[in-house]
Write a structure and sequence with these properties.
There is one protein chain. Strand 18 and strand 19 form a beta hairpin. A seven-stranded mixed beta sheet has the order 6-11-3-12-13-4-14, with helices on both faces. Strands 16-17-18-19 form a four-stranded antiparallel beta sheet, with no helix packed on it. A two-stranded antiparallel sheet has the order 1-7. 40% of the residues lie in helices and 14% in strands. The chain is of the alpha/beta class and 546 residues long. Helix 1 packs parallel to helix 3.
């Protein structure tokens, strides 16, 4: 190569650095950290991400070929500087933004960091471009050697991570479908609307400030002194469905695989020939429920929209590796990965989405003679809040949990009014509840309201100490089915008694090799007064804390 000429290597190698960092290293390192969190493999999104990256590389290379002289050198140096900045940002310069679980990043807390981070990015890019203009031949070597060195480093690190994956992902051989979602019984219906993260304070605020929201909730009783089981969804929903406590005694999936054995609620409903439909996330159930739960189908979960999933991973990569001042434009909710699922059989996959539930509530229903148990898990009050009080989409983080709760309750009301129109409301048992309280760190308590068969009147408030532990007995009693010995219905609790209720708290975190973070045990007495028991459940065993 003649002196003064800059070959294609000077642009292709820094582009390789950018592509490898954003489109390979970033997503794969996140994925292998906890593959059990996802229902897909890297091959479901990585090739499509690479196609996007290659498309960008073609454009960047075309620009490079059009430019001449120092402009061409400067463009190559700019690409290299961006690659270096991405590498440094993702590996060494990020602030702690927390887990992308729906809670918006509080950007105003990072003002000083934003200034420093921007200065570093600008300085890197300017220095590279200036050096290219002044010392073109030297910069060519720096660009080529530096790009190869950083890609090699990332490749070695990636291989090490892949070989140390904590969990081997097995193919998912069953799927939670949306089959029969609009089918109800002309006889007996037991329906649970699980509004994720609907804090009891939201319900109380509606009673205090916007009671008209509940004007058509005929026969409901609200329990403000109600305690959940776990602080987050991952184990709250399995507890609600099985009544069994998880104490980090085994990996989560091993627990789920056996939790539904001898499940009194499911067993009694199945024995009474109820159609059982559980519209929740696949990771809360196991393959053994296929044949008992009607909407569970023995078919593999697949990715229905590969490019859509790839776009989400690219968004995450840009959030992790982009400069701080641009991160807010790539902020997203990690739970949205589930929106791209489909099934190998072609059955519609279930999504716990508020807007899909809104469409269901406003659509047509069909009736059957068979008694029904329906469990509708919807996003409810969960962040990011994007629904207003009228049930309209306003954009992620553009609403509040309280306003979104009112919007969701609008569609619950529409659903229940459809039941009234079909003449099946009066005899139904309807429960509006949450898996846990507000989505925040610290103790919080879920909403619980219930309508018994034949109940009428405006919403009442009952201050009895109650908890999710009474749920199974309450459902079975309302259905006229046997209540297992040792279980108590919420209606049989002493309203004056001060019951101590168990509650296990854990902070928001990625799961540690398939286990939950340490579980701190509390007892909750009347008035929602919490007290630590001194026990903490870790994967190594029970620790007696001071």
């Amino acid at each position: 190569m003649k002196k003064g000429k800059l070959g294609l290597a000077a642009i292709l190698l820094p582009l390789l650095l950018i592509i490898f960092t954003l489109f390979v290293y970033s997503p794969v390192t996140v994925y292998v950290g906890n593959p059990s969190e996802y229902g897909f493999t890297v091959w479901d999104f990585l090739p499509h991400m690479l196609l996007m990256g290659l498309g960008g590389a073609v454009v960047a290379t075309a620009i490079y070929l059009v430019l001449r002289g120092k402009a061409r050198i400067a463009w190559a140096a700019f690409a290299f500087a961006v690659g270096v900045a991405l590498f440094l940002q993702g590996n060494f310069m990020n602030a702690d933004y927390g887990v992308l679980d729906g809670r918006g990043v509080k950007w105003d807390q990072y003002t000083t960091y934003a200034i420093v981070n921007t200065v570093v990015w600008v300085a890197l890019i300017c220095a590279a471009v200036v050096l290219a203009l002044l010392k073109g031949e030297l910069m060519k070597k720096v660009v080529c050697f530096g790009s190869v060195l950083l890609v090699a480093y990332e490749a070695v690190m990636l291989v090490m991570m892949v070989f140390s994956m904590p969990v081997e992902l097995e193919p998912v051989e069953f799927s939670v479908t949306a089959n029969y979602k609009n089918r109800l019984s002309s006889n007996d219906n037991t329906i649970i609307f699980l509004c994720d993260a609907c804090d009891t304070n939201y319900f109380q605020q509606i009673l205090d400030e916007d009671p008209q929201v509940l004007d058509e909730w005929d026969g409901f009783v609200y329990y403000p002194d109600f305690v959940g089981s776990f602080s987050k969804t991952r184990m709250s929903v399995p507890y609600i469905l099985t009544g069994k406590w998880y104490e980090n005694q085994m990996p989560i999936q091993d627990f789920i695989d056996t939790a539904y054995e001898d499940d009194p609620l499911i067993d009694e409903l199945a024995a009474a020939d109820y159609e059982i439909d559980l519209y929740t996330h696949r990771e809360f159930m196991n393959e053994g429920l296929v044949g008992t739960v009607s909407n569970l189908v023995a078919t593999r979960l697949i990715v229905a929209d590969h490019f859509g999933l790839a776009r989400q991973w690219l968004k995450l990569a840009c959030f992790n590796y982009g400069p701080h001042i641009l991160k807010r434009y790539f902020e997203f909710y990690s739970g949205d990965f589930g929106l791209y699922y489909g099934t190998e059989s072609g059955d519609p996959a279930n999504h716990a989405d508020n807007y899909e539930f809104a469409a269901l509530a406003q659509g047509d229903f069909e009736l059957t003679d068979r008694n029904m148990f329906k469990f509708y898990h919807i996003r409810g009050s969960h962040l990011p809040c994007n629904m207003d009080a009228d049930g309209n989409f306003v954009g992620d983080w553009k609403s509040t949990a309280y306003e979104q709760t009112k919007g969701v309750f609008k569609y619950l009301t529409i659903f229940m009014n459809k039941m009234k129109d079909m003449g099946i409301y009066d005899d139904a048992t309807i429960i509006v509840m949450a898996d846990h309280g507000r989505f925040d760190e610290g103790l919080a308590y879920p909403t619980f309201a219930i309508k018994r068969p034949g109940a009428h009147g405006a919403v009442e408030v009952n201050t009895t100490c109650a908890s999710q532990t009474e749920l199974h007995a309450t459902i079975l009693q309302c259905a006229g089915l046997p209540v297992p010995e040792g279980q108590t219905s919420i209606f049989d609790l002493d309203p004056e008694a001060d019951y101590e209720r168990r509650y296990l708290y854990y902070p928001t975190s990625h799961y540690n090799a398939g286990y939950l973070p340490d579980l701190t045990e509390y007892t909750i007495s009347k008035g929602l007064v919490a007290k630590k028991t001194g026990r903490v459940f870790t994967r190594e065993g029970v620790v007696e804390a001071n």
